[in-house]
Amino acid sequence: MWLSVARYAALMLATIYCVFTAASVTLNQYTLKAIDGNPEISVGYGAFSDATFTASKGTVSIPKGVDVWLRVQVPESMLNSKVVVSIERPSLGGVEFYLMATDDSLYPVSELNISAALPNLSPHFIFEPNTPSRVVFAKISSPYVSTSEVEIIPYSNYVKTTNVRLFFMGVFFGVMCLISIFMLSTGVISKRTSLLAVGGYLLSLALLYVAHKGLTDVVISYQNSANFMHFSDSFMCFSLGFCLLFFHYFLTQNRLARKFKSGIKLIAGVYVLIGIAAAVANVDLPFAMQSTMVIVAIVLSAIILASQDKSNAKEVYFCVAIWSPIVAVLIGFAASQTINSTTEHVSIVNDSLIALHLILLLLFVIWHDAEKRRIYIHYAQFDKETALPNKFALFGALAKLEEQNKPHTLLLFKPLILPSIRLNFGLTFANQHISKLFKEVHEQINTYGSAAVANKGDTHIYRLEDQVFAIVLDGKIEVSQVEQYVCILSSVFEEGVWYKDTKIVDSLDVGVANYPMHAKTTEKLVQRALQALNTKTHNGQRWHLFDVESSMSSERQLKLTSFLKSAIEQEQFSLFFQPQVDLRTGRVFGSEVLIRWLQPDLGYIPPDEFIPIAESSGQIYEITEWVVEQALKYQAQITKQIPEHVISINVSGRDLSRRELSVQLITLINELSLAPSQIMIEITESVTIGNETELKGMLDDYRSIGVKVAIDDFGTGYSSLAYLSKLGFDELKIDKSFVMDIETSKSNQTICKATCDMAHSLGSKVVAEGVEDINSYIRLQAYGCDYAQGYFISRPLPFNEFLSWLEKVNSASDIKSFLIR
Questions:
Q1: CA–CA separation, 237 and 285 (whole Å)
Q2: Higher pLDDT, 623 or 716
């Protein structure tokens, strides 16, 4: 394939001389000396009329651009049998056969004559036993200095030799085509441009080989075959372009400057475009242009090879070995331009070198893919940033222990300061920090394991997640030994590392689970350890062992989170009403709306359990909107029975700042014709602790609508009197923890009395929650409490039952006697 490329490229070394000196040779003075052994062949140079024929041996020198005439006379001893005059066609040259007429003029052999078969692959002329003439003339031309072999052999020998030659050339060409098609199809399927470049190069190589050898004679006509030979310049351009792409994709990725890599791709693209343009225009490229293209390709390839670092040495050596045969072909061609040599021997050597080049190229692609696969496998088992075994390696190690049914303990730990280190010092330093600490951790835990646990193996540290790391402790481990491992981990991280005169000290969260005590499978073991890791720390505890109760709680929380999504759509929520009584008049003042959730699979779910989950998962907004809409619709029905009824709605702290809630209130108040002053928004005291200015602005937004605002669970937070006076709540609700044992607790009596006095002084009303008996009811009346709420008055009731309860209370003359019954 590289015959053309070789011939053109070698001009950089030797043929450049020939290019500029060939024109100065006086060809008419160049004659070959007569050599004994084959007097039947004579040779002449130049125009036929001026050629002086001189006896020649079988090998004939072909000067560049000069017609060489051969006069071949068949010996009389061979005339009785069918013989063939076979002339080897110079690469990209031509051979034409002529016979002499009776008037000594020459006429060309007809293309339809059997003598013209395979004119490009194997030019030959057949002498039949009855052929009147013993002489045939042949004109040989070549675009460069070359040689040609001339033979006079029996026809049977010619057929045998030609068939053998066709077989080996066909095999060689077929192998090149198959490999190129395989590379191209694999590149297309896997979307790998590197394989497309190799496939394109091999295909160009195969077509160039066909053009130089004249193999197209086998399948197409003489004229088409001759035209195909003119495409050799295009195939040469294609091969150079794909050769540069080969170097680009296999050696320049992430190793050279972007501009240089882009330049290589650009030059390769220009080469391919030049080849396409030459093929379309059906022109031959100038010799100087081809030489320049070859020299540029060689220089760029040399620069790419020279720019590789030590880590890429294997690929460099391999590439040098791949292209060395081509360099040898180039050198051989350069030598052939100055020193005549036997074409047969040169052709065999060139074909062998090209075959070696193909084999090495194929081996390189296979080796390169194997190296990539090895790297992928490595990084499939190891973390790229910290070089630690990753979660796949961890699961593999745990699965192996599980198969052997060997007890083991999984210890997970999470450096708490790692995110801050990444944020402030960058990923590179964070990885260096982790690598340095883990190196020390690895040494210490293995030292302790060998000495105290009789664990002679290597205890690896794995990276399970971005910030979670793992250690597998093989064998039966006591709790005290786990504690010691935790101490080793903590001591290393608490020792810290220095960074620019700053000592970075880290701390850990640690979770532990054991096989088979806590889990019987690898996946469950990792899950249990993660649950232990995420258990909240209490009382300064260093680590957590998996606990079944906390696991069940976590699983229940996950279920509730998933069930909350469909709870509203499936109408699983309902509203209950707990009445509030005016202690001064004994009449029903209003009611507090309480949400209830009856889940079909889990049963009754208390608000204290699902409300925090709804807040953390962001589903509280939908629930609040549903509660407000349903409560105000019920309020519209209740006011028909008790016009002055006030409804109290609990609002989550997350909902308080949402503009959508105030817009919803305004819309429903207008649609249902409700009095805004009979709507009370309750917020817990913990919500009030924060930005005073921001909170006051939010409360003023609700007051501008006309609704009132109450502070719920008063006394459980830390808000001061001055703070509450600035916020100006309409109502304070004393938490039930101070009311339920008011008869037996002097301090609670004092708190309740003081709260009533304080609220009244601020212009607020007071509601006492948790009124359980008549004595508490009467005492709160004496303290001046405004309203009471609790089981003594009524438990929370569904809406229909609440309406029935209202009818009974309104028909009773004395509410106390009604409640005591």
A1: 10
A2: 623
